[in-house]
Amino acid sequence: MRHGKKINHLGRTAAHRKAMLSNMAASLILHKRLSTTVAKAKALRKYVEPLLTKSKNDTTHSRRTVFAYLQEKEAVKELFDEVSAKIANRPGGYTRILKTGLRLGDNAEMCVIELVDYNEDMLASTGAAGAKKTRRRAGGAKKKAEGAAEATKAAETDATAEESKDAE
User: Fold this and answer.
1) Using one digit for the tens of pLDDT, what is the confidence trace for 108-160?
2) What is the spatial distance between Cα 66 and Cα 76, in angstroms, rounded to a whole number?
3) Could you give the CA distance from residue 32 to residue 75 in angstroms, rounded to a whole number?
4) Are the CB atoms for 57 and 48 separated by under 8 Å?
5) What's the order of all strands across the beta sheet hosting 95-102?
6) Torsion of CA 85, 89, 92, 94, to 10 degrees
7) pTM: predicted TM-score of the whole model, two decimal places
């Protein structure tokens, strides 16, 4: 039984897993988007989100802590200079996983993991929407419109019926 075992080992040794997640996290921070398998993306999300939270507090200690995980100077600089400014008011959930289908060779489930605040397409679509739409049904207005249409049809049929009576 696997009670309390929350880490997905991804079929790798601890050192290999640590190096892989470190490289993937640095690539995600530098490129803002990464194509990988769903299992690796979920493991990466658990690895990188605490680092993104730590980047909100720009101190020497937090920079050194993040560098211990990433081992890449440019990624740490990018994280603390640009990414932390964009995610400053977000309370969590900095990454998004979008499933893209199955890989051709081994049928592994593939996805794209990206930083939420850097997807221009989704940001543009939410900005274009403007006011928040309600989740209620618009049944009342629809019924009123149908009722008005039926009333006009009934009036027209009454008018044609009266004209036909007058003609007789």
Assistant:
1) 999 999 999 998 888 788 766 555 666 777 666 666 666 666 666 666 666 66
2) 7
3) 11
4) no
5) 33-37, 109-115, 95-102
6) -40
7) 0.73
